[in-house]
Each structure stands twice: as structure tokens, then as C-alpha cells.
Design goal:
This protein is an alpha/beta fold and 258 residues long. It is built from six helices and ten strands. It has three domains: 72 residues, Ubiquitin-like (UB roll) (Roll); 76 residues, membrane protein fhac (Ubiquitin-like (UB roll), Roll), CATH 3.10.20.310; 71 residues, membrane protein fhac (Ubiquitin-like (UB roll)), CATH 3.10.20.310. 26% of the residues lie in helices and 30% in strands.
Length: 258
């Protein structure tokens, strides 16, 4: 089954957990701070970024502010500050964190048309970096966009993570199904009362699939075509001409029987 295109031109939500003090105006002195859950992140870094220190008088707002500061590091999937124990003189606090895993390696399968330096430019992850859910989403989006630019609008990208027992790091596996490369079968224009479709088709690089033309669809070329059309209209005195949008419609073309 061949594929073709009709081208028309026209908080992170987090929960802050605090224990004492319960009211912003109540203040207690910090008698001690312990750090828990940090495997790769230095305890001193966590303590420093929290803004909390032994001997400091704190309120509930200070606890919440410390949690916000630690979230800004983008190193943790969970942050909590809890009371270990209290005395008449003050409170002992424990900062509990759950770290995002770091990347061990990334494996890519099924990439027949995207290799070498072109692939490396799209892979937005590097060994040793913290891997957040947003990073995985960005990787998938980056690959999908690249394949669309190459004319593979039917590509499917699947990204999975696996924590390695040997070092606690994450292996990212990317499975790609490239699908068929789509071809342009028809080019239409709307709102072009001054010039015919035939005339405007001569002003763009995108062509229809014929015996002698590839009919290649590339997003980059479409953007260039839009600029060319605007330039042509302006050269003909239509200074306010604009392209309000473009649409690509995917259609199935039955294979010819032999």
C-alpha cells in the first residue's frame, strides 16, 4: 500500500511536605540536618541549596521555600523535609530525596535511514546525565520531528527505560519503525484569485509525484516554498499577501495490480 499527500497552502506538580512549625509566624531553631536518599548528589550541595542551616530559626514558609529550591535542581523525582525529633530547644530535620537515574547508555534499533552524525544530532541524551521524564519526551519528539522532515510521516518511535542492577543507572532503548516514505500526489492552493494554481506551482520546489519527478515531501522544503510564494506575490505588487496556513492530508493509494 503506497502513501501519498495532498498538500494545501493556506508544573511539574509537586507536593510540599512540612511538619513543624505549622504556622508561618511560629519559628523554631534547627538543631541538626540529615540527608537521606542521595546516591549521586553530594549532601553538601543538597544542604546548601535548601537554604537551611543548623542554628537558623525557621518558619513553615522556610520549609516550603527549601523544598522549592531543591526541586529547581532538576535532580530529584521526590523531595520531602520531615521532622526527625524535637526538643524544647528546637528541631532536628531530615531532607529526604529520590534521585532521577543517570544514563548508562542509549540503544537505537530500526534506524535504517537515520544514522551516524545525523542520528547523533537528534539524540538529546548523553552518558552520565540525569534522565527525567521530560528528557524522554524530548527525545521522542526530536526523533519524530526529524523523520517527518525526512518525509517519513508514518514513523513510529517507542522509548523505554531499564534500570541496570550493576550500577543503578538507566539504559534507554529506542525502537523505530520508519514506515514508508510518503509522496506528494497533489498540490492545491486556496484564496489565490490573482494567479492560477498552475502558475503558483511553478514558483515552488515541492512537486507532485510523476514518472520523472520524485514527489518528495519535506517540511523544510514546504517552509521554503511559502517564503517563495510570498516573495512572488510581493514582486507583483501584492505587498500585504500572506499565507495563513498549510495542510498535508495523508491518503492511501492502492498498489497497481500486475
Amino acid at each position: 500500500m503506497n502513501r501519498s499527500l495532498l498538500v494545501s497552502f493556506w508544573l511539574a506538580l509537586f507536593v510540599m511536605l512540612s511538619v513543624l512549625p505549622t504556622h508561618a509566624q511560629d519559628r523554631l531553631q534547627i538543631l541538626g540536618i540529615s540527608i537521606e536518599g542521595n546516591e549521586a548528589t553530594d549532601a553538601g550541595l543538597i544542604r546548601a541549596h535548601s537554604g537551611l542551616a543548623v542554628g537558623k530559626d525557621i518558619s513553615g514558609d522556610d520549609i516550603q521555600g527549601a523544598i522549592r529550591q531543591l526541586w529547581k535542581l532538576n535532580l530529584f523525582s521526590d523531595v520531602q523535609i520531615v521532622e526527625e525529633r524535637s526538643t524544647s530547644e528546637g528541631v532536628y530535620l531530615r531532607i529526604q530525596v529520590s534521585e532521577f537515574r543517570r544514563l548508562d547508555k542509549i540503544n537505537v534499533h530500526g534506524n535504517r535511514k537515520l544514522k551516524g552524525e545525523d542520528l547523533d544530532k537528534v539524540l538529546v541524551l548523553s552518558t552520565g546525565q540525569v534522565v527525567r521524564p521530560a528528557d524522554i519526551s524530548r527525545l521522542k519528539t526530536s526523533l519524530t520531528k526529524k523523520y517527518e522532515e525526512m518525509g517519513y510521516l508514518l514513523s513510529e518511535i517507542q522509548v523505554e527505560q531499564d534500570t541496570l542492577e550493576s550500577n543503578g543507572r538507566v539504559r534507554v532503548d529506542v525502537e523505530i519503525r520508519e514506515g514508508d516514505k510518503v509522496k506528494v500526489r497533489k498540490i492545491e492552493f486556496e484564496g489565490n484569485s490573482a494567479f492560477s494554481d498552475k502558475k503558483l506551482r511553478k514558483k515552488i520546489r515541492t512537486t507532485r509525484k510523476t514518472l520523472f519527478r520524485s514527489g518528495e515531501y519535506k517540511r523544510e522544503k514546504i517552509e521554503e516554498d511559502k517564503s517563495s510564494l510570498i516573495a512572488y506575490y510581493q514582486s507583483q505588487g501584492y505587498r500585504d499577501a500572506e499565507i495563513v496556513g498549510d495542510t498535508a492530508v495523508l491518503r492511501k493509494i492502492a498498489a497497481a495490480s500486475s
